[in-house]
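writing this on my phone so excuse typos. first protein, seq and then structure
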Amino acid sequence: MPERSRISSAHISPSAHYTGYVWYHHRLAEPAFVTGFGRFVHKLLWPVTWGARVGFGLDIEAFLLQRHLQIDAQLAAAVEQGGVQQVVEIACGLSPRGRRFRTRYPQLRYLEADLPAMAARKRLLLRDQGWLCGDHQVRAVDILAERGRDSLPALFAELDPRQPVLVITEGLVNYFPLAVIEDFWRRLADELRGFAGGSYLTELYPDLREHPRYRQLRWGVGLIGWLTRGSYPLHYRDHGEIVAGFQRCGFDRVEVLDPGANAPGLGLPAPRMPGLVRVVQAQV
C-alpha cells in the first residue's frame, strides 16, 4: 500500500463545492449550501457537461443525482424499516442530506464528518442557519488516520453502541487507490462490529470497459483528476468483483445497486445510456 504520508484527502474538497451547487440547482438543497466557488465551477463546466450530454449521452449531473437519490432511498428504508437512529456521513462536504433527513426524521442522531477545514465550514453553515443541535453535529475526521482525535475510533466513540448505526460516504471512494480505500473499509467494518447493527452506504465508479462510452469515460476521469489536483481510479470490473472486494474487507452482506436502472423509481428520467455509477450497501 502507498505510504500514508504521501496520500492526502485534501484534493477532494474542490468537488464538494461543485456538487453542493448541483444539489441546490436540482432543488435538493437550500441556498445556504451554495458557495461562490461552487457556482463558478458549475458555470465553467457547463459547456463540457452539455457537450458530453448532447454528443455522447453522458449526463454528468444525472449520474450525480442517481447516486445521491439512491443513497437517500436506502437510508430512508433503513430508518423506516431497519430501525436505524444513528447516521454518520463521512466526507459530508456541502451535502444537504443531514439537513433534509433531520427535518424528515427528527428522531435521528446525525453526525457529519469531514477534514478539519471543511468540517469547520459545514459546522458554521449549520450553526448560522440554526440547524446545529445536540442530535445534529459536525466533527473533523481523516479516513487515513488510524489513531488520534481525527480518527475513526474517536468519531465512533461519540455514538451509542447499543443502537444500530449507518455510515454514508458519497463522492469519496474513487479519489483513492484501491489498496488505500480497502484499508479504510477494513477499519470501518471493525468499528461497525462494535454496534448492535452496522451498515454502510457508498457509491463507486467501476472500471466498466464494455460500456459503449468507455473512451469518453476515461477522458472524463482525467478531467476530474485535473480539476481536483489528484487521481480518480476506477475500482473493480463488475458486480461480482465489488461484492468480493467488500467481503474481503470484512462486510458480511453486500448488495450492489445500479441507480441508472432504478432511475424512474427515484423520480428521474430513464437514462439514454447504461449507468456508470453503482451504490453499495454493505452490512456487518
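second protein below, same order as before
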Amino acid sequence: MLELDGGDGGGQLFRSALTLSALTTTDFEMENIRGSRPEPGLKPQHLTALQTVADITNASVEGAEVGESTITFEPAEPTGGHYEAAIGTAGSVTLLFDAVLPIASALDRPLSLTATGGTSVAWSPSMPWYRRVKLPLLRRSALQAAVDVERTGLYPAGGGQATLSLAPSTPSALHLRDRGQPERARIHSTATTDLADSDVAERQAKQACQRLAASDVDIEVTERATRYVSADSTGTVALVVLAYENGVIGADALGEPGKPAEDVADDAVDAALTAHETGAAVDGHLADQLIPWLATVGGEVRIPRVTDHVETHVDLFDAFGFDVRIGRTDDGTVLLGEP
C-alpha cells in the first residue's frame, strides 16, 4: 500500500490521490490530510469526493468521516453507470467533477455523475470557466466529456445541480508549449435574476469589452454573452476567455455584496491580461489541472508560474509512478509529461 503525507497540500492533493488511485487501482493511505490548513482533515466536499470515487471503483475505505485526517483507500476497476452526489450548501461541484474527469480513460462504458452544491464559488473554478475553457481544450485531445447545468448554485446557499457525462476515451498528448498569436476573445457574464433591473450582467460584459479594447492585446471580442439565472443566493460571474492558435487563457471573477459590476469585470480582465503577459499557453487553473493529463497521455504545457499546488502535485504523481517534471527554459516554465 502506498503511504502518502497530505500535510503539504490541501483538498486538491487529496482529490488527485483518489483519481490516481482509481486510474491505477493502487491502494493508498494518506495521513495528515489538509494538515497545513487552519481546520485540517476532511470537509464535507472532500468527503463527498471520497464517497463518489469509492462508489465508481467499488473501493474499500477506512476513515470516511468529516474531520478525519487519515484515510485508507483500496479501489477496484472503475465502472460506468449513473452516480449521484450531494455536497451540501456551497461546496464546489467543479472540484468534485475534477476528481472524476480523468477516469474517462479507464472506463469501458459511459458514466454520468449528477451533483448538487455550489456551481460557481470562491477558491474553485467557476462552472462557466469549466464548461467554456477546460472542457473544450480537453475535447480537442479526444476526451469525451460534457457538463449540463440544471441549476446554478452560489455562496452561501449553494443549491446548484449539474451533471457530468463521460464516455470511454483515449486522450492524445497535450502539445501546448507555443500558444501562437491571439485569435479572439469571448466574454460571458452571468447574474441572478434579482439583479436584472440593475443591468448587472450587461454592465459586467460592457466593462470587460471596454477594458480589453483599451489593452495592448491585439484581439477582437467575437462573443459577448449575458444571461440571468435563478439561484438560492444572489451573485454574479464574469468570465473572460482569450483564445490563441494553440492555447487558451480563461479568467473568472465572482460578485460580492456591495461590489460594483464594473469591478467584478475588472478583476476578470486583470487576471486574464496578467496571464497573457507571461506568454503561457494556459491560465493558472489549467496549469494545475492539466497535470493528470500530462501524466497519463504525455506532452508539454507552458504555464504562467510554478505554484505550491503545481509542486505538490508533481510530487504526488511521482509517488504513483508517473513522470511529470517542471522545466524552466528560455521561453518560460514548462510542465513535461511522459506516459
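Residues 279-339 form one domain. thats all i got for now
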